[in-house]
Design a protein that fits this description.
There is one protein chain. About 85% of the residues lie in helices and about 0% in strands. It has 19 helices and no strands.
Length: about 450
């Protein structure tokens, strides 16, 4: 029987990219349905308050998931740099999917009283703990399998999974909201959470089929695995760590304000409930189309100009964004959400995986990216909560706009401080290059 030739490097990259997309889609589907539920139903169901106070309590549990993410990033990042990327990605995927399904099975405040919000917070913490290293691992896998000249493009596909998760979450919630209000509040809201079990099984199957990255294999072969990755990051890569932290300010705010907080903001306007969800779905569709384009653009122009440009444009558009929401015009509202949460956000999302990965040495890359990225994510989780408080205090979206403008300014400063990493050679990248040469010979 004729021997089957080994897969080409391009085929391996496609397999890894598929695994990254599926994993991040599950992660962000889980996070976005939680954010949507926090905006729409968790206040009255779990905190027994159908008011701004109930919404803030629900967003506080939303923020808890982000507060715990740096802990998950540090723990799983440590083992990702010692044991490998693949093993940790399987573990975090299962944690994310399982906790989401359990949230969909939780009894409400009327059924078990204070145990309901307590269990919700506990599961949210577990969800955040698993998510702390999920995206970083998926992005690093894609980047480490990619040739240096195309890391921006291939790495960006892990962010496409974010867009798919967002689109799926908004679409499912839009469908269940078509139920009569009493049915939606009693059992319909659970459907998006329980549906996570289906994609979880698909994701595990796909990730079991991929191999460890050539870059990490070379680290193991040369016996250069870090003994204490976090300490090495803090001693040798502290600047890169702080740069990643600063660059996450705008990235977080520019995504969560239009796709999460805007749903709450529009509830106070005379706008049908479907308008906000339609805008979020449109934003996700724009992300799917433009994130790879911005990733490829960062391969040509550099990471700093694409990422910093996205943050700068976001700051300019924040005031017009809230003016369009205040217009009450459905088409204008959808357009505003799609531009800010779709096109502008994609500039940062598309360039981020390669940019962040290239800032760190392979032996501490998982810890550096996951730790810095998820510590920055804390501010993203607090953004909807802070925005809700500002809205309650000042009754205007302009206060929120200036909050986000300040966060964008921090990101622009971090980008200016950061080195340009496009084309940077990994110290052990020759393993990937040699594999590509072998594939060309066999192919």
């Amino acid at each position: 029987m004729q021997e089957v030739p080994p897969p080409t490097n391009r085929a391996r990259i496609r397999s890894v990219v598929s695994a990254s997309v599926v994993g991040t889609a599950i992660e962000w589907y889980d996070f976005f349905i939680y954010g949507t539920a926090a905006a729409l139903v968790f206040g009255p169901l779990f905190f027994h308050q159908d008011s701004a106070a109930g919404t803030m309590a629900a967003f506080a549990t939303y923020a808890v998931g982000f507060v715990i993410r740096p802990v998950g990033g540090a723990v799983f990042g440590h083992f990702g740099d010692k044991l490998g990327r693949k093993t940790i990605l399987l573990i975090t995927l299962v944690i994310m999917g399982a906790t989401t399904v359990l949230i969909g099975l939780l009894p409400t405040y009327e059924q078990i009283g204070l145990w309901a919000p307590a269990l919700l917070v506990l599961l949210r913490m577990a969800q955040g703990f698993g998510a702390g290293a999920e995206f970083a691992g998926a992005a690093i896998m894609a980047v480490e399998f990619s040739p240096a000249r195309r890391r921006g493009y291939y790495g960006s596909w892990s962010q496409v999974g974010v867009a798919i998760g967002l689109a799926a979450a908004s679409a499912v919630f839009a469908l269940v909201q078509l139920l009569p209000p009493d049915q939606f509040m009693s059992w319909g809201w659970r459907i998006p959470f329980l549906a996570s079990s289906v994609v979880l099984g698909i994701g595990v199957w796909i990730r079991l089929r991929i191999s460890e990255t050539p870059v990490f294999k070379e680290v193991q072969k040369e016996k250069r695995v870090a003994r204490s990755p976090l300490m090495e990051v803090l001693r040798g890569d502290l600047k890169s760590f702080l740069v990643v932290l600063g660059m996450r300010f705008a990235d977080n705010a520019v995504l969560y304000i239009p796709v999460t907080f805007a749903l709450v903001y529009l509830k106070g306007k005379d706008v049908p409930g479907w308008v906000g969800l339609a805008g979020v779905f449109l934003a996700a569709a724009v992300q799917v189309a433009t994130i790879p384009l911005f990733g490829a653009l960062s391969d040509r122009l550099g990471r700093r100009v694409v990422y910093g440009g996205g943050a700068g444009v976001a700051a300019i558009l924040m005031v017009p964004f809230f003016l369009m929401l205040d217009s009450g015009n459905a088409a204008l509202i959808c357009f505003a959400i799609a531009i800010l949460g779709g096109l502008v956000y994609s500039a940062m999302a598309g360039s981020q995986p390669a940019f962040f990965s290239e800032l760190f040495h392979p032996r501490v890359r998982y810890t550096g990216v996951a730790g810095g990225r998820e510590l920055g994510a804390v501010f993203g989780g607090l953004t909807p909560l802070a925005a809700t408080a500002l809205l309650a205090a000042y009754s205007t979206g302009m206060a929120v706009a200036f909050l986000v403008i300040g966060m964008c300014a921090i990101t622009v400063a971090a980008v200016i401080w950061a080195p340009e990493t496009r084309g940077r050679q990994f110290d052990v990248e020759r393993a990937s290059e040699q594999a590509e040469i072998r594939d060309q010979i066999h192919g």
